[in-house]
Amino acid sequence: MLLHNVSASLLFLTVIFASIYNVSLQRIRDKMYEPIEGASACFRRLNGTHQFGCSSHRSGNVGVLQFVDDDMDLNWLVENATVSPYMAVLPPKMFTKDVLLKLKTSGKVNGVVLINNGTETRPEHFSHEDKCPNRYSGLSLVHEQTCNISDPWNVHGTGISLIDWGFPIFHVKDEDNISKLYQCYKTHNAHDRDAQVERSLCALEMNSFMLAAVDSKTCIRRSSATTILNRVRYCDPLGDRNIWSTLYPRYKAEEKNKTVIVVAARMDGTSMFDGIVPGAISPISGIVTLLMTARILAKLAEPLDEQHGDDNVMFVLLNGESYDYIGSSRLVWDMTHGVFPISPNSDIKVKQPPFYLHNIKLFVELGQISTLGNVSSSETDFYLHQYEPSSNRVNSQNVISSFKNKMNNVSQNIGLKFKDAKKKNSFPPSSLQSVLAKSPDIEGVVLTDHESHYLNTYYHSIMDDSSNLKYVYQNGSTPSEDSIQTVIAKLSRSLAMTLYYMISNENKDPPELEAKMVDELLHCYLDTMDCPVFRAISYKQKLDDKPASLYVGVNVWLSPITTLTGHALALLVNQTDSNKTEETCYSDVSNRVFSYIWMHNIIDDVNSTGACIKTTMNFSSAISPAFFEEQDYDWSSGNYSTWTESIWREFSVRMFLKPSKFHENLTFALGVVVLALSFLIVYFANSKSHILFGNTFVENSC
Ligand SMILES: *[C@@H]1O[C@H](CO)[C@@H](O)[C@H](O)[C@H]1NC(C)=O
Ligand SMILES: *[C@@H]1O[C@H](CO)[C@@H](O)[C@H](O)[C@H]1NC(C)=O
Ligand SMILES: *[C@@H]1O[C@H](CO)[C@@H](O)[C@H](O)[C@H]1NC(C)=O
Ligand SMILES: *[C@@H]1O[C@H](CO)[C@@H](O)[C@H](O)[C@H]1NC(C)=O
Ligand SMILES: *[C@@H]1O[C@H](CO)[C@@H](O)[C@H](O)[C@H]1NC(C)=O
Ligand SMILES: *[C@@H]1O[C@H](CO)[C@@H](O)[C@H](O)[C@H]1NC(C)=O
């Protein structure tokens, strides 16, 4: 009885004590750790055979802060530093492959922070993509490589994002956080560096643990193995949706034999860090050129309900192209299987006939577009890239050369020139490669700002932003003559006029140059998604007040910028159906030719009651066939994109004061002493228990 009371109260006390202890421990921890909010992480991606990117240990990586501003700092860290592991803090100019590899092989570094102080001058180049982007896919599957590694397209590409780093890398942009790190480093670590062992040091803990490992094959297999309790996902395939729209609706059966000029651009870019893919020159300038071309062409070709000539035009924005052409390889797969735009088996009355690859008369791709190569303030040159084997074909040339002639013809007086790209045995990375790999006879050109290598030295990086494109929002004023807005307006005008001529054999002049509209569109992608054009297409929907991120994302999540872009295309072409009200404005299940979308419709008038937009625009899947085509897909074949993205639980960066080595050793030694003592006491009590407690105690308790 007594014994029970004693143990109960002991238990009670323990609980009380433990909870108090816990609370105070929590408080101590809060005091000790200073969170660095808003840091974005490098994460892990996998292809069929490898893993790339970054991950921390399961419980996070810890290291002493060390700013590495120059080679002296680097050498000291690699050769003389004594209290490893360290966290190396690098400004952009030090964030190079050489430096990172040195840090990695030194074994002294547990993580890297890239600090990107916006006011500092930028390095001349900063691209972490491969020198030959998508070098294993596209045409290289069927022909030899079309990118010459000694004279590559992305000359300054470091390939940093295609290395498996084995430690976390974070990007910190916020000025306050940068100065927090710097202050702590300055106060505790910077002085008297060779005596760091003796004192407490400022340290970082970074957590970016990735659940997936090895390669996509392993991860997809592990993910689909269901346990009794639940299904655990380790990674998701990269993918989203393509956007497409035809100038004239395709509903008659004869469409099956008609030819179509495809105008394509890519929808996605990428970078090393989560959530920061500004993508100004690639892909935004191409997207905006395509949207504007569709708008101008629709004006020229009205009324859009009836097709006059034989040819049609299809606009396509392809998604996931940065990762071995996910979107274009899927579109080509769909077309060769006769399921684009809709499966023929479905028993819907009014639907579009299948669109096959042989329906393509000409494939015009809008690549990187900028004013970086401007010859003078009044002349901009563009280059038309053609795949050589196809240009040697008999009777080819006709379509492409008439396209080129017309383009030069219509832009004679507006300062644009379209030239043949003359680079031997090379063809730029492009969606057209997916098409040519399947069907080499298709005629196609890629239109870019560059001839033999990218002018964009920030390709696929966090710095490919509005300043790289030399874009400044004009907010209603007319952009200057040499601005990117005017150049894109001129380019889309020339392209629309040429396309109109090619489908109708008629010349028509568009009413005006719409540089202001280009200005508004670029504003939406580069400055803030809460912008006049996106407000006009969304109805009672909250828009994020930040620039868009153009990363393709994973298939289980629909990227908002893809939806916004699709709807912007519908708005710009602008066919309204005034007979439909908000309630009746939806797509009819028995008629799959037009979609109906209710939107504000009028740019910069949120009070407008809205209108029902009728459009041929629709989305199609941009998920690689590797993930559904065959049960036993050969993951190392490279036939289709196999990119996946690892799942993670959290990203966190915390700063704290790490006790000195001496202090740590002391604590450890004390611990060992206490442990030894307690063993001794227990041993002693045990061996003398008959004296200490007597036999009665043992009997009672039984
Ligand atoms: C994955 O990437 C590595 C390195 O870039 C490459 O060697 C390999 O061929 C790729 N695997 C597939 C299946 O694409
Ligand atoms: C950013 O860099 C500039 C120039 O190097 C410097 O004057 C400024 O103090 C830096 N800001 C921070 C927060 O480090
Ligand atoms: C398409 O063309 C083929 C031969 O070129 C012809 O047999 C067929 O009837 C045509 N189909 C339609 C729907 O016009
Ligand atoms: C654009 O101009 C309007 C009207 O003058 C103003 O209200 C708005 O704040 C401006 N927007 C930007 C981003 O400067
Ligand atoms: C609206 O309905 C009327 C009467 O049914 C029809 O004549 C007209 O063509 C319709 N307009 C549109 C844009 O569909
Ligand atoms: C749009 O595409 C989806 C499939 O992606 C299809 O179910 C739908 O019917 C299409 N809508 C129209 C109007 O074509």
Structure write-up:
It is a single chain. With 702 residues, this protein is an alpha/beta fold. The protein folds into three domains: 32 residues; 186 residues, no CATH class; 285 residues, Aminopeptidase (3-Layer(aba) Sandwich). The chain is 32% helix and 16% strand. It is built from 17 helices and 22 strands. An eight-stranded mixed sheet has the order 1-22-9-5-6-7-8-2, with helices on both faces. Strands 16-15-17-14-12-13-11-20 form an eight-stranded mixed sheet, with helices on both faces. A hairpin with a 4-residue loop joins strand 3 and strand 4. Helix 6 runs antiparallel to helix 12 and helix 6 packs parallel to helix 14. The chain is elongated and about 110 Å long. It starts with a helix and ends with a helix. The C terminus is likely disordered. Belongs to the nicastrin family. It is found in: Membrane. This is Nicastrin. It is a single-pass type I membrane protein. Its main location: membrane.
CATH superfamily membership of the largest domain, which one? Zn peptidases
The helix tally amounts to: 17
Question: In the residues, how many domains can be counted?
Answer: 3
CATH architecture of the largest domain: 3-Layer(aba) Sandwich
GO biological process, one term: Notch receptor processing
Protein name: Nicastrin
Domain Nicastrin small lobe: 41-212
InterPro entries: Ncstrn_small, Nicastrin
